[in-house]
Amino acid sequence: MQHFPIYLDLAGRRVVLAGGEGAALSKLRLLLKTEATITVFAPDPDAQIEAWAADGRLTLVRRTLEPGDALCAALFYAATDDEGEDARVARLARADGALVNMVDNLTGSQFITPAIVDRDPVTVAIGTEGAAPVLARRIKADLEERLSPRLGALARVAQAARGAAMALAPGRARRAFWSDWFERTGPEATDADLPGALDALLERHLSAEATPGRVDIVGAGPGDPEMLTLRARRLLHDADVVIHDALVPQEILELARREADILPMGKTGFGPSVPQAEIDAAIVEQARAGKRVVRLKSGDPGIFGRLEEELTALREAGIDHAVTPGITAASAAAASAGRALTVRGRNREIRFITAHDMKGFAENDWRGLAAPGAVTAVYMGRRAARFVQGRLLMHGAAPDTPVTVVENASRPEERTLTSTLATLAADLDEFDNAGPAVLLIGLAPAANAARTPAPSLKEHA
Ligand code: SAH
């Protein structure tokens, strides 16, 4: 670490900048957020700098820098947009004893300004020792997205209430209070109401009835962690307990806090599975114990996910709850195949069906599904493929109707089988898939659907 990150108190300190155009403007925009006393040396300054000077926000000296001009300055910026002039003023300022920064000149600088995510009083500084400014910008963009724009307001109110919160027992109780404030109660309160909301929250935590449990039923998407919603990610991070079904991959579970309890509980198509009543009971029991529970289900919880049963159990138990939707397997499969699920003039509807139910193979509106142009996504359809094939052909579907089978859609192990209705069962036997698969009947993969997935944030960086 060549550059040591610190936060410098600039209140009332002198900061001097030489320059009056582009580079100077962008530095000044940052510096004006501080309480520094700023002096700018520029023979021909931009109108914006003149305006700041007129407003009394900085002192403007209309000439180039001379020896002694940077005396008593804590920081000096050489920002003249001219290499030679920058070198000259930097030399003078160094002689005057200031710490010097030269814009776009790492070796000439004694300090550098990081990329800043500003949620005053919360600020995040990002530095790469000048090695990768693009990476710094990328991280900044990522954080900008992740940190609520209101974080600063929440932190200011929290600052004022630090003393009052000391009434809570140190450790878990105090931590629970603050995370409740920053992650739930604070973000949900209106700006005008922030202090009141914090008082009320503190009251609640102080009286023993603190933190009633709640349950979020969350869609985990098809498997790629990047296909989680931002809300799913936040809820996972906040959860005390994560109860997940069999199709949720490890990479997603790892987004939960290390201290969270992770309980696998799911229905698998044919293998061993936990009875639904037992799952419902476990969710209710955890919430009653005051836990924040995330019930994590693959894809969208409202599609073949036994969502209603769990909602009914929660409603009957009077437990606070909400549903967070997710990307369903058919959407991910179609995206991988490079195809739309609906196309004008081809199909005005898309059906999501399952080929088996509790009683076995499930009956469907086969005639409708067999119509030309129909598109059907079959979930849990692997073993039922022969049955579906037979029913559709019997009801008049064309034998050459295209079928795309996408296994492990969105995951690294993703595979695609291109088939037709006539050969589906035989092709599937040969394909020998073991992972979850969706059958897209009526869709052929795009000719060049060979996957070039969007670069992930990590790769991009
Ligand atoms: N709620 C889920 C579906 C649960 S039923 C959703 O909206 O996606 C389980 C079935 O979903 C599996 O048998 C399979 O047909 C399908 N499925 C789930 N994840 C999948 C994936 N990554 N790729 C292909 N199919 C998947």
If you had to describe this structure to a student in words, what would you say it looks like?
It is a single chain. The chain is α/β, with parallel strands linked by helices and 461 residues long. It contains 16 helices and 19 strands. A five-stranded parallel sheet has the order 3-2-1-4-5, sandwiched between helices. A five-stranded parallel sheet has the order 10-9-11-8-12, with helices on both faces. Helix 1 links the parallel strand 1 (14-18) and strand 2. The radius of gyration is 30 Å and the shape is elongated. The protein starts with 13 loop residues before the first strand and ends with a helix. The model has no long low-confidence stretch (mean pLDDT 90). The chain binds S-adenosyl-L-homocysteine.
Key structural traits:
461 residues; 5-stranded parallel sheet; 16 helices; 19% strand; elongated; binds S-adenosyl-L-homocysteine
